[in-house]
Write a structure and sequence with these properties.
This protein is α/β, with parallel strands linked by helices. The protein is built from twelve helices and eight strands. Bound molecules: magnesium ion.
Amino acid sequence: MEPHREPVRIYEVCLRDGLQNEPTHVPTESKVAIALRLIEAGFKDIEVTSFVRPRWIPQLADASEVLRQLPDVEGVRYWALVPNRVGLDRALDAGVQNIATFLSASETHNKKNVNRTVRESLSSLERVVDIAKAEKLQIRSYISCVFGCPYEGDIAVQRTVELAQKLLAVGADEIALGDTTGMADPALVTRVLDGLSEAGIPLDKIAVHFHDTRGTALVNAYAAWQAGIRSFDGSIGGTGGCPYAPGAAGNAATEDLLYMFERMGCATGVDLDTAADAGAFMEQVLGRELPGRFHRYWLGDQAKKSTSATA
Ligand code: MG
């Protein structure tokens, strides 16, 4: 085993990013049951839903109900995605304490996603952040398509630097860099993070949100870790994708991140077996095989154990 290193934080997105593109309707009580398993595993940051217009993402139409049913647990923060002022009002009514906003580094992706220019998104977001600050909420701001856009291709590092600076200036507590369609490679990850660092942006304000669409999520996470990032988004079982980005599928699988970091000596505060068990439960709920590598390994191992136990 490696020596002890600085701990890392895993921010769990399966209930929002993981579910939003799932065709199988997941009832509120199953979402709450998944959240309880995540809490038992030791997750402290769980993104549980989204207050986008229910018509856009019917799967998350029960946002208020989910929040109301979740127990208050010391040290656990529930996060909800908030697209605009209307979404914020709904979120506040539901008692939300931590919100996530989003906009895209790509003009075309932003337009297709929310039918606004990036500038329009920024000014709407400013208003949302002002109110959220007055309500003492914690604010995370996603920037999508940081590492490439399916419509525009490469995204300039400077573009991300400027957006991150603006979002922090507006009052975001944390920026999450999204590889929305899984186009990143480790060299690019290094370049983007070095760019942020050189611009004076503290890396402890930055989280990374990778997708494994082309098999690079874990190596990108490692590159980000080497560059100084300590906060990583993951989705149990590797669930998820972006409904507005053609072909995008699969967030970085949480269990893979947990395994890698724990092996490296970076404490995650999460029990891997309990997390893997939550992944198995998620698979049952969705009724389909999930792609996470550790998840698949673990299911196989469990099956082997139960066969040898009965033999
Ligand atoms: Mg995602």
